[in-house]
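Section 3.1: Structural characterization of target chains.
Under the original work plan, the team committed to producing a structural model for every single-chain target entering the pipeline before any wet-lab resources were allocated. The record below documents one such target. The sequence was received from the expression subgroup and is listed exactly as submitted; it comprises 497 residues.
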Amino acid sequence: MDKENNISGEKALIEERRKKLDQLRDRGDAYGNSFKPKNNASSLHEEYGDVSKDDLAEKNIKDISVAGRIVLKRVMGNASFATLRDASGDIQIYVTKNNVDESVYEEFKTWDLGDIVGVSGSLFRTKTDELTIDVWDLEMITKSLRPMPEKFKGLTDIEVRYRQRYLDLMTNNDTKKVFIKRTKIIDSLRKKMNESGYLEVETPMMHPLAGGAVARPFVTQHNALGQDLYLRIAPELYLKRLLVGGFERVFEINRSFRNEGLSTKHNPEFTMMEWYQAYASMQDQMDLTKDIILNAAKAAGCELKIEWGDIKVDLNNFKQSTLSDLVLEFNKELSKDDLSDKKKLQNILTSNKVKVEKSWGIGRILLEVFEATVEGKLIDPTFVTEYPVEVSPLSRRNEVNPDYADRFELFIGGKEFANGFCELNDPDDQATRFEEQVAAKDSGDKEAMDYDQDYITALEHGMPPAVGVGMGVDRLVMLLTNQSSIRDVLLFPQLKS
């Protein structure tokens, strides 16, 4: 019954607001575009926030104009207060019969929360010392037909916050701050890469083959060509073609797509930054990755000791260890020899309720043990090295132990943040790995890659030795804004219908 009453009440409010809109239309005042604000709320507070009441009166600051949404309103007979919210913040306005035409004032009294208005006037401080615009001219810019969320309850329905992000941004300054920080973080990534001599490039988002990472792709249809295309899983194979072409340092901040489930950690559409450098070492790139993250923390205004949900992360404390050493450290029942014992590793997975697929070799099983028993416990930043070649189809083999790849992943707060490796530039080895991926796909592995003959042809022309890194931007933003769900750092996350 309460829900029905709410719907009925909202319909009545909308009907009443539409009547007001009709009156504006009759006068030709609906949805105007002539008001041009000279100021914004934030700049007024920054410039005059510390100026005393008497000094402000002496300065006689006139010709101030601001446009924004009415988010608070107090009508008091011949004088009224309201709060306007623009993109930068809030500013109070004071409207009286003494300063504006009486008919304008009476109409202002009927304006609703959510209406977008423009005001002009002078600055003063109220008896409560709040910086305020004393209005001498005001106009309706956009009539709001739907009521804003309640002032005190706010927008508490998490589903509505995600599905109608505009309402969340309209009413929740904390949400707005997260996305302003996101932009600053991405700007810092781009600036760091430019300073480090990398060239920013753009590569295709629709690929003729599924490749670049081990993940299930989205499939789409190109009608004119009459062929299937795949939304990119990663830009890797195209960026490495640029290394073949002669660019030695390239990066891309890109949207990638993986046909996976929805969770607090995963969205099927996400942002990555990938970069590649010829003639670099893995250590070079781990150092650069660390610098990128510390630089982003500075841009976001973060301390290096960060609270992320219920854990504490120390960005002063970057560590490095091999995958095998970490598996032994967190699984005391295992010996070094047990790392090649398929049965013992499978027993650990079974006890952790992980289903073992028939197609998995010892390398994949070892990785699954790491993910089940170690990954979530790596709280401070940890570079994990020496991954099995079986789960690193694009990585260069380690020269000392060819069963392992020259690869690293960075974990922070128990989550993967970056994946980097020395690139495989041997075309014959790469062809063999592609063949293994095709065999895995034929055996039912929906995440396995296709055989990319054009990429093999490119490698046959010669690609310089290089290291490439992919870093999850959304997860970095989650860390630096203390958000527990990826949906809270995506303006419009994917949701079930």
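The longest helix spans residues 2-27.
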